From TrEMBL:
Its main location: membrane. The chain crosses the membrane at residues 31-55, 61-79, 91-115, 135-157, 169-190, 202-226, 246-266, 286-317, 349-369, 381-404, 416-441, 447-467. Residues 35-472 form the Amino acid permease/ SLC12A domain. The keyword Membrane applies. This is APC family permease. It is a multi-pass membrane protein.
Length: 489
């Protein structure tokens, strides 16, 4: 059984016990890089924001601000609870403490399916993004499957290496993808946009329009994965502060950055023309803007950086999934082997192998069925994952006030009651918006959308059934589930 208490000796001296994750490795910036990289800012902006503009008009930037504000409210209770809950189980541990073990085990299964859905589907996007880049730059057409399979191997290797290797790599990739967007914004601002700079995007009359609901649905989806800061608690330096700071930094950065970039792209075409431009060529909107205001070389670079943005997102989700697998193996819910940590790299490498094999199986199944890598592999696999993670956020928000009613604490009522209740209401609205606009995400039939929506609740119910079975057949495992570790990690 892997050791669950923290261990600060390096791998050269850790001979008396089985290896553990490398404690004290990640700072605030490192964890923020993981979280923001998972959101894939460049891919979200260039690939999704044009649809938000086409549907919501020039008020689209406010949608990203509202989504960020909602998640900041959620983060208040979430991070307050993180000071008291030291488990590496992240969402499921928080939900267990507030709502009980059965709900917590249901949440654990939902988390595994949700994070896997968010990652595995993106291998389809990797294939199509690489295809588009090679065609645009060199006129080369290649099949998507070899690219996706090569991506699986590359991401496995990144997760196999030490966590500080992953943090440094993601830091470089994230700086590159945000840098190209900043370059675009700088070009637009320096040249004064297409027809001068305008603040009309923030006028109530342009925000309170029917299309705002669709913008909000896209905006909430753009933050998916931000809550994974707590997954790295055991590898963080001063986790009580680092995790909390990284969460707020990630939410603030994404909300403000998304809104700013969308606003600058609107300025690139002008308030009167951007909606038509976004509707007629959404895939080319950002490339057209950067070509006009920076140069064709920058558009070529943006093509390349979209591929690296996708790779960064894949690696961030892969690392999060591996740590969930490690935690659940230590709980006794998943096979013990998944809790094995590599002696040199101190990574949960067998969980990484299992996740890579699962990803390869799904990718090959979609390829064998002749499915489209974007419209079906990406969208059909990502969508249940996105809904599942939003549902976990909702359950975590509900769990906060229940948890603080059960313990003695000195936290204020604003953090333990008011903010979590507000977050519960706002996240419920967000989930409704996403589910009622699911056709915008998937482009699929009503039947397919109903099936995709049903995956998350079905997995959660299955998890509760698993919990009841564990309580009967393995009561010791059930009683230990999400128990507080003996020392902080």
């Amino acid at each position: 059984m892997p050791v669950t208490s923290p261990q600060t000796q390096d791998s050269a001296t850790a001979t008396a016990a089985e290896p553990t994750l490398r404690a004290g490795t990640l700072g605030t910036a490192d964890i923020a890089f993981f979280v923001v990289s998972a959101a894939a800012p460049l891919t979200v902006m260039a690939g999704v924001a044009p649809f938000a503009i086409a549907l919501g008009g020039i008020g689209a930037p406010v949608g990203y601000l509202l989504a960020g504000l909602t998640l900041a409210v959620f983060a208040v209770g979430f991070t307050t609870m993180s000071r008291h809950v030291r488990s590496a189980g992240a969402f499921y541990a928080y939900i267990t403490r507030g709502l009980g073990r059965s709900v917590g085990i249901g949440a654990a299964l939902l988390a595994m399916v949700g994070y896997n859905g968010m990652e595995i589907g993106v291998y389809g996007l990797l294939g199509t993004a690489t295809q588009d880049t090679l065609h645009a730059l060199f006129g080369i057409d290649i099949p998507w499957l070899p690219v996706s399979l090569a991506g699986l191997v590359l991401i496995w290797y990144g997760g196999f290496r030490s966590i500080d290797f992953g943090a440094k790599l993601l830091g470089v990739l994230l700086c590159a993808e945000t840098g190209i967007l900043v370059l675009l914004a700088g070009g637009v601002l320096l040249k004064g946009g297409a027809h001068g700079l305008s603040a009309a995007s923030f006028a109530p009359g342009n925000v309170l329009v029917p299309g705002t609901a669709a913008v909000l649905a896209f905006a909430f989806a753009a933050f998916t994965g931000f809550e994974s800061t707590v997954i790295y608690r055991r590898e963080a330096r001063d986790p009580g502060r680092t995790v909390r700071r990284a969460t707020y930094i990630a939410v603030a950065f994404l909300g403000l950055f998304y809104a700013f970039i969308v606003w600058t792209v609107i300025q690139a075409f002008g308030d009167a023309h951007v909606v038509q431009a976004a509707g007629s060529d959404p895939a080319g909107l950002f490339f057209s803007a950067i070509t006009t205001f920076v140069g064709g070389w920058a558009a070529d670079l943006m093509h390349i950086l979209i591929v690296t943005s996708v790779l960064a997102s894949l690696l961030a989700f892969h690392n999060a999934i591996n740590r969930y697998g490690l935690a659940l193996a230590e709980e006794g819910v998943l096979p013990k082997a998944f809790g094995t940590v590599h002696a040199k790299h101190r990574s949960p490498y067998l969980a990484g192998v299992a996740q890579t094999v699962l990803g390869a199986a799904v990718v090959l199944a979609f390829w064998a069925a002749g499915a489209d890598p974007y419209a079906q592999l990406l969208l059909w696999v990502n969508t249940p994952g996105m809904i599942g993670l939003m549902a976990l956020q909702l359950l975590a928000a509900i769990a906060v006030p229940f948890y603080f009613r059960r313990i003695t604490h000195e936290e204020g009522v604003l953090r333990t009651v008011v903010a979590p209740i507000a977050a519960t209401v706002l996240l419920s609205i967000a989930i409704v918006l996403v589910c009622t606009h699911l056709d915008l995400f998937t482009g699929a039939s009503s039947l397919v959308n109903m099936i995709l929506m049903a995956v998350a609740p079905a997995v959660f119910v299955l998890g509760i059934a698993l919990a009841r079975r564990l309580r009967r057949t393995k009561p010791d495992v059930y009683e230990r589930f999400a128990a507080e570790p003996s020392a902080d990690a």
